[in-house]
Amino acid sequence: MIEPAIPPEESARVAALRALGILDTPAEERFDRLTRLARRILGVPMAMISLVDTDRQWFKSSPGTRVQQTPRRVSFCGHAILGDGAFVVADARADSRFADNPLVTGEPGVRFYAGHPLRAPGGQRVGTLCVVDQRPREIGAEDLQSPQDLAALAERELVLSELSQEQLKLAAERDALKEAALVDSLTRLWNRRAIDELLNRELSRAIGESGPLSVLMADLDRFKKVNDEHGHQAGDAVLMAAAGRMRSSVRPRDAVGRYGGEEFLVVLPGTPASTAGEIAERIRTAVASTPVEAAGGMIPVTMSLGVAALDAVRPPSAAGAGLAGALVAAADRALYSAKGKGRNRVERAS
Fold first, then answer.
1. In which residue ranges of the chain is CATH 3.30.70.270 found?
2. Poorest-pLDDT segment among 71-85, 158-172, 237-251
3. Options 3, 262, 281, 293, the catalytic residue
4. Is 179 a catalytic residue?
5. What is the mean predicted confidence (pLDDT) over 303-312?
6. CB 246 within 8 A of CB 220
7. Rounded to whole angstroms, how far apart are CA atoms 110 and 99?
């Protein structure tokens, strides 16, 4: 295996990557949309938006694989950022640079790779939009145009800070949190630690600005039955599908987190109860729209949600202490009201 070389401008390249403020943030629909298109257009099982950090490649979007990052030394994308155009490996097993690469000999079994560099605003090559197949392929110049076009769209998205200010701050402070994991490894949502922190930050902002804020507690209906009847791999597929549908149903500034098991917490900054109810209904409809394809067959999925708004729980002399817990508890009570009224519905806290 030949490890990728380090570019001469590595310090400036890494600084440009970090300045984007996108490393270690949850998956976002705007990037997943591009990798879905890449998979569909080129007929490949995997497509990724990969960002090459100092010692790792980290995937902002990676539908078709559950891997979030790999060491840079084994990455194909580490090679791809060394040039300006597309980097193509038709058959990794027949290529001396990659034949004994663990990504080829083990999971995910890479045979074909095509990646196009992604540039930061200053021109530094910070990552790639790439497609991967588990069988060798030849690709023509016309087919290579699609990754190039999608990479150009991905570059535009990289410079758009659509996450809320507090979400961007949390991601930027990851080093200060001693490299604490902030993203759930299965669903690519914020994990419980991160979503709790975001709720407290958004709550402080709402109180300081005398603005609205709402939260949703959401729970997949009869999830234990899915695991019991179809197995835990099918349960994982249901969780990942539900997470993706939730992401596509909220606004970029909203924060979605996996709270535990099959339960999720959604923080809606600047949102009154009426709008929160509409977002909750949009999530409920999206989750129930299509059965999830898993090894056990097509699995119908529904979700119940509870809505709670800050003005419904805030005491007249609120100082912020205990309000996060009160909001979550109110949304949780509304959630269980929804469960008690037949599931697959939205209820608001009184």
1. 167-348
2. 158-172
3. 262
4. no
5. 94
6. no
7. 10
Please tell me whether residue 305 adopts helix, strand or coil conformation. Answer: strand
User: pLDDT at position 162, please?
Assistant: 63
Look up tokens 């890479």; give the residue. 110
Q: Which residues, at least 6 apart from 181, have a Cβ–Cβ distance to it below 8 Å?
A: 191, 193
Distance of CA 325 to the CA centre of its chain: 26
Residue 68 has pLDDT above 90, yes or no: no
The backbone torsions φ and ψ at residue 132, rounded to the nearest 5 degrees and listed phi first, read -135, 140
Task: Kindly state the average pLDDT of the residues 87-97.
Answer: 96
Can you tell me the mean pLDDT for 306-318? 75
Q: Which residue has the tokens 């249901």?
A: 238
**The tokens 């943030």 sit on which residue?**
25
φ, ψ dihedrals at 93, nearest 5°? -70, -20
What's the pTM value of the predicted model, to 2 decimals? 0.74
Q: 324 near 199, Cβ under 8 Å? A: yes
Average pLDDT over residues 270-285: 96
- Confidence class for position 179, pLDDT limits 50, 70, 90: very low
Residues in the chain: 350
Q: Which CATH class is domain 167-348?
A: alpha beta
Amino acid of residue 176? A
Calpha distance 177→297 (Å, rounded) = 41
| Residues 217/306, Cβ–Cβ less than 8 Å | yes
- Range name among 76-80, 143-147, 166-170 with the lowest pLDDT average: 166-170
> Which of 182, 167, 76, 90 has the alpha carbon at shortest distance from 135?
90
The CATH H-level superfamily of 10-159 is: GAF domain (3.30.450.40)
Tokens standing for residue 122: 């200053």
Answer positive or negative: Cα dihedral of 331, 334, 336, 338. negative
Range(s) of the chain covered by CATH 3.30.450.40 = 10-159
Looking at the predicted structure, is the pLDDT value of residue 75 above 80? yes
- The conformation of residue 134, written as its DSSP 8-state character, comes to S
